[in-house]
């Protein structure tokens, strides 16, 4: 997923929402702009910063990487928010949280938007506004290579443990498509990968680019050919506070432009390559 990091990523100070935090690169105020104005878009422009909640364990969309010897949060979603910030004329302040705390931060007014491979489900739409979808992923099942002959269909996972990131759309995929399996939900994808490698879970459902990235880093894992159903609810969108009409319209304009000129796809491919390169270091 052409343009490289348009704005400086400012790492937020430690923010505890039952989640991990990230060190701050400067003294940018991490409080949301929603409290200061009804018009979210104007409030962000006035503050000169957009506060973005994400969970940086979801390569290639958001992840930690060593860039010039420094740990930075990068990814296709990060490139996307940097381009958005460029077009709004503001800088980016990243809040790095557990995925299940990302929408909580938005709801509590600690972030202006949430961008973290988030699907605009009907349930979430009751609490948040969303932009138009900007990426529709395939869903893949990852297993240990040693189990390739044993796990060849969804039925072969009956009574087995299948993992998914806590609070993610993959949880509902496991619940609906692996009805005879036991769902294991964990907040961080790297922890799920470790559980899979250790045999504590038997399979793991991930978005395809994320699955490919982690498999490239772990020779003992593989992506299966087992087909999983994908619905419109699985597509990614940016979450906004309810009533963010002006901001929603402006973000939809930017997303349409980036989709039509192929930039989002370039972001995904570039960061897939970056994640694999970083893992090889």
TrEMBL record:
<feature type="signal peptide">
    <location>
        <begin position="1"/>
        <end position="25"/>
    </location>
</feature>
<protein>
    <recommendedName>
        <fullName>Solute-binding protein family 3/N-terminal domain-containing protein</fullName>
    </recommendedName>
</protein>
<keyword id="KW-0732">Signal</keyword>
<dbReference type="InterPro" id="IPR001638">
    <property type="entry name" value="Solute-binding_3/MltF_N"/>
</dbReference>
<dbReference type="Pfam" id="PF00497">
    <property type="entry name" value="SBP_bac_3"/>
</dbReference>
<feature type="domain" description="Solute-binding protein family 3/N-terminal">
    <location>
        <begin position="49"/>
        <end position="275"/>
    </location>
</feature>
């Amino acid at each position: 997923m052409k343009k490289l990091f348009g704005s400086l990523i400012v790492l937020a100070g430690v923010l505890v929402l039952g989640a991990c935090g990230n060190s701050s690169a400067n003294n940018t105020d991490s409080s949301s702009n929603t409290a200061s104005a009804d018009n979210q878009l104007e409030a962000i422009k006035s503050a000169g910063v957009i506060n973005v909640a994400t969970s940086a364990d979801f390569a290639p969309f958001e992840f930690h990487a060593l860039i010039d010897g420094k740990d930075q949060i990068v990814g296709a979603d990060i490139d996307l928010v940097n381009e958005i910030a460029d077009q709004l004329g503001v800088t980016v302040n990243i809040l790095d949280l557990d995925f299940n705390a990302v929408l909580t931060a938005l709801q509590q007014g600690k972030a202006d938007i949430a961008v973290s491979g988030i699907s605009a489900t009907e349930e979430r739409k009751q609490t948040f506004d969303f932009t138009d979808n900007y990426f529709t992923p395939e869903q893949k099942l990852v297993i240990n290579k040693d189990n390739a002959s044993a796990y060849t269909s969804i039925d072969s996972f009956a009574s087995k443990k299948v993992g998914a990131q806590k609070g993610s759309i993959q949880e509902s995929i496991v619940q609906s498509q692996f009805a005879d399996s036991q769902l294991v939900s964990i907040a961080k994808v790297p922890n799920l990968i470790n559980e899979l490698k250790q045999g504590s879970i038997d399979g793991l459902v991930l978005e395809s680019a994320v699955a490919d990235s982690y498999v490239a880093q772990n020779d003992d894992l593989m992506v299966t050919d087992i087909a999983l159903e994908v619905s419109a609810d699985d597509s990614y969108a940016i979450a906004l506070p309810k009533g963010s009409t002006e901001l929603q319209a402006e973000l939809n304009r930017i997303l349409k432009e980036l989709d039509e000129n192929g930039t989002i796809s370039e972001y995904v491919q570039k960061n897939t390559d970056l994640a694999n390169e970083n893992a090889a270091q």
